[in-house]
Amino acid sequence: MNAAGVALLLVGALFFFLEVKLASHGVLAIGGAAAIVFGAILLFPEQAGAPRGEFAVLVAAAVATAAILAILSFKALAMKSLPQRTGAGALVGQVVSARSPIAPVGKVFADGDLWEAHSDVPVAAGDLVEIVGIEGLALVVRPARKAGQESG
What we know:
single chain; alpha+beta; 5-stranded mixed sheet; 5 strands; 41% helix
């Protein structure tokens, strides 16, 4: 066996592992595929009776692996740009009903919990409010705009 071939196979495997852990946009996956192909070519010396891998199979396997890892990497990047769907940050932007008068502190019901709410503008119980932020364990709200109301 050729030591350079073994080293390239290990480098290729390392690049595939790093592609999963780092956001390299598929660059490490392509480098890993190239390293595995060249490592497989160099792995066994050209001698009569020495084992040889089928070149087309090696290239196809390396390219398929690199393509899968690159696609998964791009999907992971796309997930980062999606809005937050869980946790307190997901509350911002929701329109909920005030459960008690908010002047300046009251209660609102959002996502199955009763929250303390703060508002600079007095809000009557039952009025709709929009959650605009979170301060500690309290929500910051403002009166929700009604349909057809101008922003301003």
